[in-house]
Amino acid sequence: MFAKQHLEFDLGSGRLSPDPDIMETGKVDLGVYHTAERFEAEKELYGRIWLNIAEAGDIPNPGDWIVREIGIRSVSLIIARGQDGKIRAFHNICSHRGMKLVWGDRGRGGKFSCPYHAWLYDATGALLNVPDEACFSHVNKAESGLTPVRCDIWEGFIFVNLDTDGTQTLAEYLGPVYNRVRDLPFGSYPYTARIGAVIDANWKLAIEAQCEAYHVRALHSRTVSKMLSSQDNPYVHSLDAQVLGAHRMQSVPRNPEYGLSPEKLVQAFSFTNVAPITAEAERGVGLNKSFAGHPDINTIQSNVWNNDQYVLFPNFIVHAAMGGWWLHRFWPLAPDKTQWEAVYHFERPKSLRAVFATQYALALNRDTLMEDNLALVQQQQVLGSGAKKMAQFGDQEALCKHLAAVFEASFNDTTYSIAAE
């Protein structure tokens, strides 16, 4: 179970505690993964809490911008870095007749011209130009800029909050995590790769698959099982796990006895040229001076440490490892459909061998995640049958249990709020 617990949390509506029955028994109603009622409550929740949307490194220069979607809210956002260096977020919708303003996914220049009638805005959201302006005497340009969205940055990660009336700060929302993780060297890994897909499964199932290693021996027997599962720790129990308000973390182990197989020549070549991001191969590489040497990472100083995983409510996961770091975001689209994205950050390859090895490590991770995604689709297909009423999480699945308990508490709080209105 959890080594440390900061159980109370605040999602902006007051102090809450994880559902005690779920925390005690690990039993969760399977209806949370497929009912319209639960999905509607989650839709309301996504409209009032802080959400990780991007990384500051995605828009490094003044005038750079990206577009991000929050499908459960039918929201499209422009995230732009102004000439003053400040990052701002706006609804991606024109003030003229509600057209989607930007149709691309990224760009530079800091100006946004509506493709419908060419109303022009800048990176501060100001309306600069209205063609044939004399026909719009009733339009106040100063009041007709882009609609801003609350935006803040933590450790280089951009968060937004769609609640225009909300007062909770990002620091308050992150709670113990805000000071628990400080000044990590995310910027030391500039070589980036992105993968993603639409998964025909509930988004909470997708998050749970990334929060426990109990399934590694069975589901990942052809990919990473031997890298993680060891004789001393066959079911890959966490080295450390902590509740951090609405959020949680765990330290994931590696198999110190894992050896490169002469039957897998490509893998052996790759792992001897770069440390894979999933597990440290037997290369004599000790804890380095990046993440592994940071005081907030691997705090128990385990010599079989692989990575620290932070799972931030509701849908953001970040891993800090020996050879780099990676993240997942899971965006609900429907009760049985999820937009998944993963971003990997490696050290910059210094040779063609290193480029090949990095690409191999990425491919291995992709194949492992595809095993997860295929299983999720199969799981979703039978959940609505009613044959089983409850999921049953064990102690090995402590992060899943806490995640479900926080969701249940937020659902009950949302239900009460809607009824009160």
Write a concise keyword list for the protein shown above.
single chain, 421 residues, alpha+beta, Naphthalene 1,2-dioxygenase Alpha Subunit, Chain A, domain 1, Rieske Iron-sulfur Protein, 8-stranded mixed β-sheet, 28% strand, globular
| Overall mean confidence score, pLDDT | 90
Mass-distribution shape: globular
Low-pLDDT residue intervals, each spanning 5 or more residues: 276-289
**Count of extended strands:** 22
What is the CA–CA distance across the termini?
A: 38 Å
Structural account:
Strands 1-16-17-18-19-20-21-15 form an eight-stranded mixed β-sheet, with helices on one face. It has a seven-stranded antiparallel β-sheet with strand order 5-14-13-8-7-6-9. β16 and β17 form a beta hairpin. It is built from ten helices and 22 strands. The chain has about 425 residues and is α+β, with helices and mostly antiparallel strands. The chain is globular, with a radius of gyration of 23 Å. About 5% of the residues have low confidence. The two termini are about 40 Å apart. Helices cover about 25% and strands about 30% of the residues. The protein folds into two domains: about 280 residues, Naphthalene 1,2-dioxygenase Alpha Subunit, Chain A, domain 1 (Alpha-Beta Complex); about 110 residues, Rieske [2Fe-2S] iron-sulphur domain (Rieske Iron-sulfur Protein), CATH 2.102.10.10.
List the helices and strands and how they pair.
Blueprint: E1 4-6, E2 9-10, E3 15-16, H1 20-25, E4 27-29, H2 36-46, E5 50-55, E6 65-70, E7 75-81, E8 87-91, E9 106-107, E10 111-113, E11 120-122, E12 127-129, E13 148-154, E14 157-161, H3 170-174, H4 176-180, E15 191-199, H5 203-209, H6 216-219, H7 225-228, E16 240-244, E17 247-253, H8 265-271, E18 305-312, E19 316-321, E20 324-334, E21 337-346, H9 352-383, E22 390-392, H10 398-420
Parallel strand pairs: 1-16
Antiparallel strand pairs: 2-3, 4-22, 5-14, 6-7, 6-9, 7-8, 8-13, 10-11, 11-12, 13-14, 15-21, 16-17, 17-18, 18-19, 19-20, 20-21
Helix pairs in contact: 2-10, 8-9
